[in-house]
Amino acid sequence: KLQNQNGLLYVEVPDAARYDKFFKAPFHFFDVEHINHFDMASLSNLGHLGGYKAVTSGSKELGVSDNELYPAIFTVFEKTFSSAAHSSIVKYIELSNKNLEDENMLIADLVTSQKEVIVFGVGSYTRRMLATADLSKCNIVCFVDNDTSKQGQECAGKKINSADVIKNFSGTVVICSAIHSLEIERQVSEINPNIPRVVMR
Q1: How far apart are CA 179 and CA 166, in angstroms?
Q2: How far, in Å, CA of 102 to CA of 201, rounded?
Q3: Cβ 169 vs Cβ 195: under 8 Å
Q4: pLDDT, tens only, 89-143
Q5: 119 - beta bridge partners?
Q6: Which stretch of DSSP H or E encloses residue 97?
Q7: Residues 6+ apart with CB under 8 A from 61
Q8: Hey, which of 28, 58, 78, 123 would disulfide with 24, CB 3.0 to 4.6 Å?
Q9: Which H helix or E strand runs over 57?
């Protein structure tokens, strides 16, 4: 990572495109010191993924002993600032981290009180919240999902049920859906109008 935004980054690695021209011993170039292998194009692509562009590049042979040469390539990179996608992704990550803080505040009382909770929704959003937010710290009795193919299975060691279990439930329903939270909230209200609800979205 460049500390000076106007600085240059020099990267030098073994040249995988010339391994066969510099044979030393069986699998010599696959030693534990080099777990990734680059040619000029893949090294340039790696820099591009990190928001760098190649200023110059080339190949060389390094003298590693009196009579042995080692094939290498090098690239000098500079940081690029014109990538709208890069800027957007950085902002998106910042928004996501802030949202995680907000989500944790929503369920803070449930975490502290350990009141029984049913989590409605077993999609990727719920699984992310279980892994990165405090949802897993709640006293989860079971999960609910409208997808019949998920019902009867388990999530985080708890059974996945149909929405019918909400009818006689006296705890809190945590609605965890990135896309369908409003529809699920209406569904929960129809099944059990007085049940406390927390919507994570």
Answers
A1: 21
A2: 10
A3: yes
A4: 888 899 999 999 999 999 999 999 999 999 999 999 999 999 999 999 999 999 9
A5: 143, 174
A6: helix 84-106
A7: 69, 70, 71, 72
A8: 28
A9: strand 52-63
| Interatomic CA distance for residues 11 and 60, integer angstroms | 13
Contact of 141 with 120, CB cutoff 8 Å: no
**Structure-token pair, residue 21:** 């021209």
Tokens of 176: 């965890």
Per the listing, tokens 């699984």 go with 127
Cα separation, 169 vs 195, in Å, equals 8
Distance CA 198, CA 103 (A): 10
Residue by residue, what is the 3-state secondary structure of 128-177?
A: HHHHHCCHHHCEEEEEECCCCCCCCCEECCEEEECHHHHCCCCCEEEEEC
At 95, list the tokens. Answer: 């928004």
Tokens of 20: 């066969």
Could you identify the residue written with the tokens 């019918």? 164
Residue found under tokens 């609605």: 175
For the entire predicted model, the pTM comes to 0.60
CB 166 within 8 A of CB 174: no
